[in-house]
């Protein structure tokens, strides 16, 4: 019963602005896919919803978790938490002898192995939605470290602060 407040949340077409991002499917059903406040706007002005990309990466068994980065940056990058079982298995196939996942995550052959998987996952994405570089993390995100909410959603700002040096490395010239 407040026409001014009502007009503030409705656009010219009568849509109610909730702050959510969604997609309409072929049957006209709306699926909420992201929050507008989580939207990445690249330096080139492209809008990218990170959560669908992260879910796409996590569909690969080798990637336990993913955080896409790129707000006000020239391209997208990502931090990946690799599945330790998959890393150890790949190391065996690649003839690597180390049993330390932390050591393996720094090995060029493991990075290349995961990079080829990332490349496959990105097939069909628009170039501005593809990550150009990534870093592998040795431990999963946690509530204790302040990286996850109680509902297990990633706190982007906390992750960005904690891994600032790794993120900056990905944006330095090669």
State the shape.
Answer: elongated
How many beta-strand runs? Answer: 7
- Rounded Rg: 19 Å
**Tally of DSSP helical segments:** 7
Helix content: 25-40%
Strand order of the largest sheet: 5-6-7
Fraction in beta strands? 15-25%
Quaternary arrangement of the chains shown?
A: single chain
What value does the average pLDDT take? 89
Structural class: alpha+beta
Order of helices and strands: HEEEEHEEHHHEHH
Could you please describe the fold and organization of this structure?
The protein has 174 residues and is of the alpha+beta class. It is 33% helix and 21% strand. It has 7 helices and 7 strands; from the N terminus they run αββββαββαααβαα. The protein has helices at residues 3-9, 50-58, 84-93, 101-104, 108-121, 156-162, 164-170, and strands spanning 20-24, 30-35, 40-41, 47-48, 63-69, 76-82, 131-137. It has a 3-stranded mixed beta sheet, with helices on both faces. A two-stranded antiparallel ribbon has the order 1-2. The model has no long low-confidence stretch (mean pLDDT 89).
Strand and helix map with partners:
Layout: H1 3-9, E1 20-24, E2 30-35, E3 40-41, E4 47-48, H2 50-58, E5 63-69, E6 76-82, H3 84-93, H4 101-104, H5 108-121, E7 131-137, H6 156-162, H7 164-170
Parallel strand pairs: 6-7
Antiparallel strand pairs: 1-2, 3-4, 5-6
Task: Give a short summary of the structure.
The protein is of the alpha+beta class.
């Amino acid at each position: 019963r407040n026409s001014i407040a009502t007009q503030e949340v409705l656009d010219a077409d009568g849509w109610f602005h909730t702050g959510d991002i969604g997609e309409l499917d072929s049957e006209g059903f709306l699926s909420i896919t992201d929050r507008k406040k989580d939207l990445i706007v690249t330096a080139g002005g492209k809008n990218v919803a990170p959560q669908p990309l992260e879910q796409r990466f996590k569909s690969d068994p080798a990637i336990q978790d993913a955080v896409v980065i790129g707000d006000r940056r020239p391209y997208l990058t990502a931090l990946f938490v690799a599945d330790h079982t998959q890393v150890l298995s790949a190391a065996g196939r690649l003839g690597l002898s180390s049993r330390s996942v932390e050591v393996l995550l720094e090995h060029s052959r493991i990075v290349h192995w995961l990079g080829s998987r990332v490349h496959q996952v990105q097939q069909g994405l628009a170039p501005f939605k593809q990550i150009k570089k990534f870093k592998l993390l040795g431990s999963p995100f946690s509530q204790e470290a302040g990286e996850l909410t109680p509902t297990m959603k990633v706190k982007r700002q906390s992750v960005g602060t904690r891994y600032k040096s790794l993120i900056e490395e990905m944006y330095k010239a090669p």
